[in-house]
Fold this sequence. Notes:
This protein has helices at about 1-10, 20-30, 30-65, 80-120, 120-125, 135-165, 165-175, 180-185, 190-210, 210-235, 280-285, 300-330; strands spanning about 240-245, 255-265, 270, 290-295. By secondary structure, it is of the alpha+beta class. The protein has 2 domains: about 20-235 and about 300-335, no CATH class; about 240-295, no CATH class. The longest helix is centred in the first third of the chain and has 39 residues, at about 80-120. Keywords: Membrane, Transmembrane, Transmembrane helix. It comes from Streptomyces tibetensis.
Amino acid sequence: MTALTAATTPAVARHISPSRGLVLAMLRLHRTALLFWLGLVVVAAGALLWAMGPGADAAWAEYTDMGCDLSRPDLGCDFPGPANNRYETAVAVASGLVRLLPLLTGAWAGGALIARELENGTAQLAWTQSAGPARWLAAKLAVPALLLVTGTLTLTLLHRMLWSSDRALISVTGWRAWHDDGIFEINGTVAAAEALAALALGALAGLLLRRSLPALGVAVLALLSLVYVVGELRPHLWPVKTVVTSLDDGTPGLDSLIVETGALTASGARVPIPSCSGEPGCEVRNGITHYYADYHPASHFWPLQLMETGLLLAVAALATATAFVLLRRRTGASV
Length: 335
């Protein structure tokens, strides 16, 4: 009896929730993109770790061996040696990969993640199963968003560690400042927010056009436009500080993000700096009494970061909400 019961008892089927099934199916379908993303993170992280350790040590040793750390370095110090070139190349490669990430994300989200599945009917097939359109789109956005934020913030942390640990080497290179586009974006939360905005804009483009190549192109153009507009708005996202100098001191020289410079008249009016070409008394004849500069000091880094991050996340949220509304209108009550 026991043996017969055991033989006739049906096996219990393993149940997989629809959400988990969507995630697993998506990871299998887009495993090439996943492996590419993991490879990009590994390469960028490896470059930053190398630059932070042996790369920086070799570059600084080369710099000091040339006597460039002395009070009066010779002209040869303007031309770094091979060790310094390798260090700069590693940092440039890592920074370039992080800055390229939003473009790649937008192109992939528009072309492969959404539009291709709508174009070949894979999405419609998934909607007829246990997962509806809304759950399908949520999984399509949530999984890449988690991977993008995790990887980008990891690279941001490593870049900040590099920026903090190699101050002596960075100071002698002279051309890198906290407000430079590449440095500013990667040293804070902006890079991750740009990636999320790219994902949302790409998904929206894919739903709007439902064809891979047009959606890819529109997503890239939309992201380039967004990055340009946000970059133009950046200096105006937080109140500036102002410094005023006399005519004898000349125009202010600041190691900061300069927003505006000009001249002041006796009434306090702001006017452009006249083209005097060194002519004595030219400023006085034009009624100029002082020079001024509106600028952001280094202490404004995080206020500017958070304001720009909030702006990018607002764009991402708006694009995501629009995508869900569009999907609901196209699929009706099945959402």
